[in-house]
Amino acid sequence: MFNGTLLSLHITNTLKPYHNLLHEGLFQLFYVHRGQLIIQVHGQSKILSQGQIILLNGLKKIQFQQVLNQDMNLYAVIFKEHFCGDCFTSIPEFRRVGQLFGEAKYGVIAAASSNQIKDRICEMENNPWYAQVTDMVNILNIFARDEQRTYLCSSLIPLSAATFRIKRIQEYVRANVHTIITLDQLANYVGMNRSSLSRYFRSKTGIGLINYIQNIRIELACDLLQQGRYPIKQIAYQTGFNNLTTFYQTFSKIKATTPNEFKNHLT
Fold it and tell me: What is the pTM of this model?
């Protein structure tokens, strides 16, 4: 436990302690040190495997499930937004952390930054509370600069909170998720040039455009897998992938499991 109730670190082999920790207003950084963890939010499932890290905040209807017959070891850092002071995220070098906090309501999953983050989380266990606060600031800064991060619930991004142009981008993606979407087509649709489109989308939503499109495709794929009516090859083409290999690679990157394994966990 470090700095009173502002921030705490837990290490456990069971999920029971976390049922009472997922309060709105608190951030939760989970690192699966060993085993697998299934997270379900609004009917969407995500399997976090060993080594994966996710940042959550304010997600309702969230459930955790330990994969049966697997030994699990889970690190959890629970903290408030202003654990390091009220002006923390207004400091120029930490403004990206403020953006990351905004994304946490969609469930942010680390990608390129995973190795750096997990090493620091493990080191926190033996550090005094004041060093742990510094460790956490460094972890969040690394996480916020991870351009390959993905999202547990990208489909929950509210269209009503976006600008008219962002609405048009998101509506176009949803309407054409079953086809190949090029940046040129999308830029032309919203009246922008290609070089500005991705920067504009990230600046307004905090999410990379390519990542957003990929997440929408894979969420549709998960819905189709849950229906159990279509073979995986057909689902790949129904969700806009032009070959099975790319579909498997993208699905595994976002869901940390293969389509076959995801389907098997549903039965």
Answer: 0.60
